[in-house]
Design goal:
Length: 506
């Protein structure tokens, strides 16, 4: 009686439900690096190294803990093409009579898992992934019958349900949300602590060599690879965030600073998404820091990202189904401009976000939302093309978390399911939040002409293009009042500038 437990690349948690459900004796854990997963999009080289190295380290940790692990490396002779093929071969090799697995995070995987029983000829037990705080059924119980599915409502419900940052039934500090305090540009003289970087060990160096050879044409550089690839390293990264950066996380959450790619952000998404850290332990660490004196706006802001946003977008992704990534409520159809691959836009805010995306496989939230996403929204880029780009270029990218952020939050392509209005902004916002504008070749204060900041005229052009739909939105009435106060000649000038600029970026 042999049971096969396949562990997927983002299921690297010792407490995984499938591992907890079987006896070590009589179980073979299957871990396979397969081409299908490595190439469903041409991932950033750092993402490939991160996942394969973390998988290899996790397999070693399982063996140390007494598990039998059948590990199939991509560079071994005759690697399997797909997870299904790897599983079918393992069932035959080990003469297994049962498979126990945890459901994958993405529709693509869930669909493949549904065909595993037929492909292997043995019963397949698929367990819910209990590493999230909110199961799909619990999310449904919240969502059912609601007119709107807003993150803020979900978050407050979760706070009340879990008791996190609650005292006697009311939110700690008397407010649910301290977002208004969390919009400061970086103050002069504030030093940003250096986050830990994890020097590649022999295992990671092997994977780097393999990726440099087999995925030479993929996007991104590997020279600055320093992501945590083990749970021990991920814990060091979390501890460093709590000790050195959490205190200012809230204040500077939205800041954009030249030469500061990570600011006070936590840098835990890669580890939480792989399973090296649990979302709950990240929340608990922040709440413990509050008790030790960390500011409430910082702790609440961080808890909201994980207990709120992370759980909420997963619930939306699973609920909305595979068709979600194809939504295009604004009918945007521009192919992804070449500047997303070259970073040669001349717009300093954009190119800075691009450069760190290429070299670190990381950009922080405001760069993703208000620079790279905002630009695509204003330029009318096809949301599906942008979705694929975001899925390719970040080390923490998995469709379940990336798609709602891109299709919903950033592009308003779901027609307002996630957000009550598009996250569209002109250059003034980017200038207010940081210092990219000073060295930029464009002038943020100019609104027209070849030197004017492109975000300025693209912003108005976007609003004009979508006036029929968006001017009905109460939250945009004042903005449309502004547009309507421009003279027809001024409006025409804006639209000409926008068309001229868009023609130059392809
Ligand atoms: P911090 O800013 O320090 O936040 C702490 C943690 O909160 C993050 O690690 C993450 O787990 C969680 N979190 C914060 N914001 C969100 C959010 N909006 N949705 C879900 N979780 C959140 N996150 C991904 O993990 N993978 C993605 O592919 C991804 N794509 C994105 C695309 C766009 C267009 C946008 C606007 C956001 C995207 N995010 C994605 C969310 C967020 O930008 C990243 O989680 C964050 O930048 C990761 O860096 P950090 O760990 O330093 O996060
Ligand atoms: Fe970005 Fe415009 Fe500022 Fe240049 S001037 S950095 S394009 S916001």
């Amino acid at each position: 009686m042999t049971v096969i437990v396949p562990v997927l690349g983002d299921q690297l948690s010792p407490g995984l439900a499938s591992l907890a459900a079987v006896d070590r004796a009589g179980t073979v854990v299957l871990m396979a690096e397969v081409m299908e997963e490595a190439s469903y999009v041409p991932h950033h080289k750092q993402k490939l190294v991160l996942v394969f190295s973390a998988m290899r380290h996790f397999a070693a940790a399982l063996r140390d803990a007494g598990w039998t692990v059948d590990y199939r490396a991509l560079d071994a002779t005759a690697p399997a093409a797909s997870l299904t093929a790897a599983l079918a071969a393992a069932v035959a090799r080990h003469e297994a009579d049962r498979v126990v697995a945890v459901l994958g995070g993405e529709h693509r995987l869930i669909e493949a898992q549904g065909a595993w029983a037929a492909a292997t000829g043995v019963p397949v037990e698929l367990l819910d992934d209990d590493r999230y705080l909110v199961s799909p059924a619990l999310f449904e119980s919240w969502a059912e019958g609601r007119k709107r599915l807003r993150m803020e409502d979900f978050y407050r419900w979760q706070r009340a349900e879990t008791g996190i940052l609650m005292a006697d039934g009311v939110p700690v500090g008397g407010q649910w949300n301290f977002d208004k305090e969390n919009r400061k540009p970086l103050a002069k003289g504030v030093r940003v602590p250096e986050p830990p970087r994890f020097e590649p060990d022999a295992v990671t160096r092997d994977v780097i060599a393999m990726v440099e050879t087999r995925f030479a044409g993929n996007f991104g550089t590997l020279g600055r690879f320093g992501w945590p690839v083990t749970r021990a390293e991920a814990l060091v990264a979390l501890d460093a965030f709590i000790a050195d950066r959490l205190g200012s996380f809230g204040d500077y959450q939205d800041a954009l600073v030249e030469g500061e790619p990570t600011l006070f952000h936590a840098l835990v998404s890669t580890s939480v998404n792989l399973g090296l850290l649990s979302p709950r332990e990240c929340i608990d660490a922040a709440v413990a820091a509050l008790e030790a004196g960390a500011p409430l706006n910082a702790v609440e802001g961080f808890v909201r990202q994980i207990l709120g946003w992370r759980e909420y977008v997963r619930g939306i992704y699973l609920r909305e189904g595979p068709g979600y990534v194809g939504r295009n409520a604004l009918g945007a159809s521009r192919p992804l401009p070449e500047i997303y691959w070259t970073g040669a836009s001349g717009m300093r805010c954009f190119d800075a976000a691009f450069e760190q995306t290429r070299d670190l496989a990381y950009a922080h939230h405001i760069q993703r939302l208000m620079v790279l996403g905002n630009f695509a929204l204003l330029a009318g880029v096809d949301p599906h093309a942008l979705h694929e780009w975001f899925l390719i270029v970040y080390a923490d990218a998995y469709e379940w978390v990336e798609a709602p952020n891109v299709i919903g939050m950033s592009q308003f392509a779901d027609g307002g399911l996630l957000g009550s209005k598009p996250y569209a902004a002109g250059g003034a916002y980017i200038n207010r939040m940081g210092n990219h504008c000073a060295p930029c070749r464009y002038k943020v204060k100019e609104r027209a002409g070849p030197d004017a900041c492109p975000f300025n005229y693209l912003y108005w052009d976007f609003l004009a293009r979508h006036a029929a739909l968006l001017s009905k939105n109460q939250r945009l009435w004042t903005v449309y009042d502004g547009w309507n106060r421009f003279t027809p000649a001024r409006q025409a000038e804006i639209r000409v500038d926008a068309a001229r600029f868009l023609a130059t970026i392809g």
